[in-house]
C-alpha cells in the first residue's frame, strides 16, 4: 500500500489577502487589453468633444465680434476698383477735376492710404459711402501706371448692409464737413438733390438740410439754405458756383429775394457769356450784388493793435490745462502730450476743423 504524501499549502495571512472582486468583473491587475483600449478611446473621445465645443464657442465669439466691428465700419478689406460704384449717393463735390488730387496721389505713392474708404455691399458689388477723392486717386494711379497689383484694389472699410439711405448720407456729409475746400454751393446742391430724391425721407429743402447737416450750427444751416435758394433761382446759368464766396452768395440771394424783378437781367448777363471764366462770373455776381471784392471776405477795419500784441488763453482739457497763445500770423498750443505720435491725417483734420470754426460767423 502506497503512502500518500501530504503537501503543505501556504495561505496568505488575512491582512495580505487581495480585495474581493465581484463575479464577472476583471481584477485591476488582470484587466484585458481590449477593455483598456476601449477605456482609453472613450476618454480620448470625451477630450475631443470638449475641445470641439471650445472651438465652436470661440468661433461664435469671433463671428459676433466680426459683425460688431463691421457695423462700426472698422473691418477693412482690399476691394477691386471695378467692383465699386460711386453713383448711389449724390456727391457734395463740384464737377470737374479736383485741383488738389495730384497732391493726394503723391501722398498715396509715398506713404500709402492712411484712411480707408467706406463702402457698403450691394448686388454683388459695393456702393461708395465715403472717399470719392481717394477712389479717384487710385483710379488715376492705375490708369497712369497700369500696375493692377499696386493700384487695382483699394483698402475699404465695410459698412454693414441694412443702414438707411439717410444714415449713409450722414456718414458722407459728416466726414466732409471738416474739409477745407468744400463750399456752401456744394453743400447746398447736395441738400437740393437729397430733397428731390424720392428714396430719401426728406420731402422739403429745410428737412434735407436739417437731416444732412444736423451736426452743423444753426447759422451755418441758414447759410446753406440761402445758397440753395440762390441756386434755385440761377439754376444752370451758373458755371462756377463752388467758387462763390459765402458773403457774395448771401448778398446775391438777398437782392434776388428783395428785388425779384432784377433776376431776369442777371440771368440774361450770365447766359450771354456761355464761355465765361470763373473771374468773370464772380464779377457779374458782384455787380449784381453791389459788392466790392474785399467785402466778400467780411473785411472790416480792424482796431489798431499794439506791435507785438498777443492773446493768451488757458483751456481745460480733461485733467490737463492747455496753454494757447495767438499773435499776428502765429498760433501756439502747449499741452503735455507728444503730438508726433498722432497720425498725420488726423492732425490735418483737427487743424482744418480749427480753421473752419474761426471762419464760421
CATH topology of the largest domain: Conserved hypothetical protein from pyrococcus furiosus pfu- 392566-001, ParB domain
Gyration radius (Cα, Å) is 38 Å
Fourth-level CATH superfamily of the largest domain: Conserved hypothetical protein from pyrococcus furiosus pfu- 392566-001, ParB domain
Percentage of β-strand residues: 5-15%
Protein name: ParB family chromosome partitioning protein
GO biological process, one term: chromosome segregation
Organism: Roseinatronobacter thiooxidans
Domain ParB-like N-terminal: 77-176
Q: What's the short version?
A:
InterPro entries: Chromosome_partition/occlusion (IPR050336), ParB/Sulfiredoxin_sf (IPR036086), ParB_N (IPR003115). 47% of the residues lie in helices and 13% in strands.
What does this structure look like?
The protein has 12 helices and 8 strands. The protein has 361 residues and is of the alpha/beta class. The protein has 3 domains: 46-163, Conserved hypothetical protein from pyrococcus furiosus pfu- 392566-001, ParB domain (Alpha-Beta Complex), CATH 3.90.1530; 183-298, Orthogonal Bundle (Arc Repressor Mutant, subunit A), CATH 1.10.10; 310-359, no CATH class. It has a 5-stranded mixed β-sheet with strand order 1-5-3-4-2. Strands 6-7-8 form a 3-stranded antiparallel β-sheet, with no helix packed on it. Helix 2 packs across helix 3 and helix 6 (184-196) packs across helix 8. The relative contact order is 0.06. InterPro entries: Chromosome_partition/occlusion, ParB/Sulfiredoxin_sf, ParB_N. Pfam families: ParB_N.
Amino acid at each position: 500500500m502506497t503512502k500518500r504524501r501530504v503537501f503543505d499549502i501556504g495561505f496568505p495571512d488575512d491582512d495580505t489577502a487581495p480585495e474581493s472582486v465581484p463575479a464577472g468583473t476583471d481584477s485591476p491587475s488582470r484587466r484585458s487589453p481590449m477593455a483598456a483600449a476601449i477605456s482609453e478611446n472613450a476618454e480620448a473621445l470625451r477630450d475631443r468633444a470638449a475641445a470641439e465645443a471650445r472651438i465652436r464657442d470661440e468661433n461664435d465669439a469671433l463671428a459676433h465680434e466680426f459683425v460688431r466691428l463691421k457695423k462700426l465700419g472698422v473691418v477693412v478689406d482690399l476691394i477691386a476698383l471695378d467692383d465699386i460704384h460711386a453713383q448711389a449717393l449724390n456727391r457734395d463735390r463740384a464737377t470737374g477735376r479736383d485741383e488738389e488730387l495730384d497732391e493726394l496721389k503723391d501722398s498715396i505713392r509715398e506713404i500709402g492710404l492712411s484712411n480707408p474708404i467706406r463702402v457698403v455691399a450691394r448686388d454683388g458689388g459695393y456702393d461708395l459711402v465715403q472717399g470719392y477723392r481717394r477712389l479717384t486717386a487710385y483710379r488715376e494711379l492705375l490708369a497712369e501706371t497700369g500696375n493692377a497689383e499696386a493700384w487695382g484694389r483699394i483698402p475699404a472699410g465695410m459698412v454693414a448692409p441694412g443702414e438707411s439711405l439717410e444714415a449713409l448720407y450722414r456718414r458722407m456729409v459728416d466726414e466732409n464737413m471738416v474739409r477745407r475746400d468744400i463750399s456752401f454751393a456744394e453743400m447746398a446742391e447736395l441738400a437740393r438733390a437729397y430733397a428731390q430724391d424720392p428714396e430719401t425721407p426728406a420731402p422739403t429743402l429745410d428737412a434735407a438740410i436739417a437731416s444732412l447737416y444736423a451736426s452743423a450750427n444753426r447759422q451755418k444751416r441758414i447759410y446753406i439754405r440761402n445758397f440753395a435758394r440762390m441756386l434755385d433761382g440761377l439754376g444752370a446759368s451758373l458755371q462756377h458756383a463752388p467758387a462763390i464766396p459765402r458773403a457774395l452768395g448771401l448778398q446775391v440771394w438777398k437782392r434776388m429775394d428783395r428785388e425779384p424783378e432784377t433776376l431776369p437781367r442777371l440771368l440774361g448777363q450770365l447766359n450771354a457769356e456761355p464761355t465765361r471764366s470763373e473771374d468773370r462770373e464772380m464779377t457779374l455776381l458782384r455787380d449784381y450784388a453791389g459788392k466790392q471784392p474785399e467785402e466778400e471776405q467780411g473785411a472790416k477795419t480792424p482796431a489798431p493793435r499794439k506791435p507785438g500784441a498777443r492773446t493768451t488763453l488757458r483751456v481745460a482739457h480733461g485733467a490737463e490745462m492747455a496753454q494757447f497763445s495767438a499773435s499776428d500770423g502765429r498760433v501756439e498750443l502747449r499741452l503735455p502730450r507728444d503730438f508726433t505720435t498722432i497720425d498725420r491725417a488726423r492732425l490735418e483734420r483737427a487743424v482744418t476743423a480749427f480753421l473752419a470754426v474761426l471762419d464760421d460767423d
